From TrEMBL:
InterPro entries: AAA+_ATPase, ABC_transporter-like_ATP-bd, ABC_transporter-like_CS, P-loop_NTPase. It comes from Flavobacterium frigoris. Gene3D superfamilies: P-loop containing nucleotide triphosphate hydrolases. Keywords: ATP-binding, Nucleotide-binding, Transport. This is Phospholipid/cholesterol/gamma-HCH transport system ATP-binding protein.
Length: 259
């Protein structure tokens, strides 16, 4: 039976907001019985940082992978910039993808390439008309924006976990995305580095006017970055609100995230 979403708190006011992502009734099953998404509906407003919380296996990462077509849902509607991405031809979907940055949990850098080569490879794939000087300039600028200009000729193996995450962010930013999807941006990092990455997410939003969905288990990251929080449970959005509203929820399961 399809399970309906249960909202513990009233939906955060979105009056006057412009949604850049709208998801309605998203379902995804793996195999015969692994029903991961059971009718997820959510929206991301322009200029907003939306944090999605949930236990491991609750479908958080699957949800954002569906947005960019890395996973195909069984049922539902996904609108990005008012276009239903599930109905787009491949070339149309690629045009939408260029406007969306995706920060993978493991950073996903090419280990055989230097930092500079990683960034140049991404840039040239989508902007082949740039001159060598223009590519160099954009690489230098984006590395400076994440505080790692000195790492330009290093190999990924020479970088700490926090540095790899920053380089992965630089690679995302070099295409100047309007939306960024962060998949566990602070996982595996120490407390200080995690806070630095969370602060960098805020800086990126302020400087580049991005809209973001942040998947995380890190409550410090959620508290610092979230304009709004949604919590997934049993394949649906179970609760929604600000950090403070959810922390004070009468629902024990919701409050357990904040202990």
């Amino acid at each position: 039976m399809e399970k309906e979403s249960t909202t513990i708190l009233p939906q955060a006011s979105i009056e006057g907001k412009v949604p850049v992502i709208e998801i309605k009734g998203l379902f995804k099953t793996f195999g015969e019985n692994n029903h991961v998404l059971k009718g997820v509906s959510l929206s991301l407003n322009k200029g907003e940082d939306l944090v999605i919380l949930g236990r491991s296996g609750s479908g958080k990462s699957i949800t954002i992978k569906c947005i960019v077509g890395l996973v195909l849902p069984d049922k539902g509607e996904i609108k990005v910039f008012s276009q239903n991405v599930l109905d787009l031809a491949t070339h149309q979907l690629n045009e939408v993808r260029i406007r969306i940055g995706f920060l993978f949990q493991n950073s996903a850098l090419y280990d055989s390439m230097t930092v500079k080569q990683n960034l140049a490879f991404t840039l040239k794939r989508h902007a082949s008309n740039l001159t060598y000087q223009e590519v160099e300039k954009q690489i230098e600028e984006v590395l400076a924006s994440v505080g790692l200009a000195e790492a330009i000729n290093k190999m990924p193996s020479e970088l700490s976990g926090g540095m790899r995450k920053r380089i992965a962010l630089a690679r995302t930013l070099i295409l100047k995305p309007e939306i960024i999807l962060y998949d566990e941006p602070t996982t595996g990092l120490d407390t200080i580095t995690s806070r630095e990455i969370s602060e960098l997410i805020l800086e990126i939003k302020k400087k580049n006017k991005t809209s973001s969905i942040i998947i995380t288990h890190d409550m410090a990251c959620a508290k610092l970055t979230a304009d709004r929080i949604m919590i997934l449970k049993d394949g649906v959005i179970h609760a929604e609100g600000s950090y403070q509203e959810l922390e004070a929820s009468e629902d024990q399961w919701v409050r357990s995230f904040f202990l």
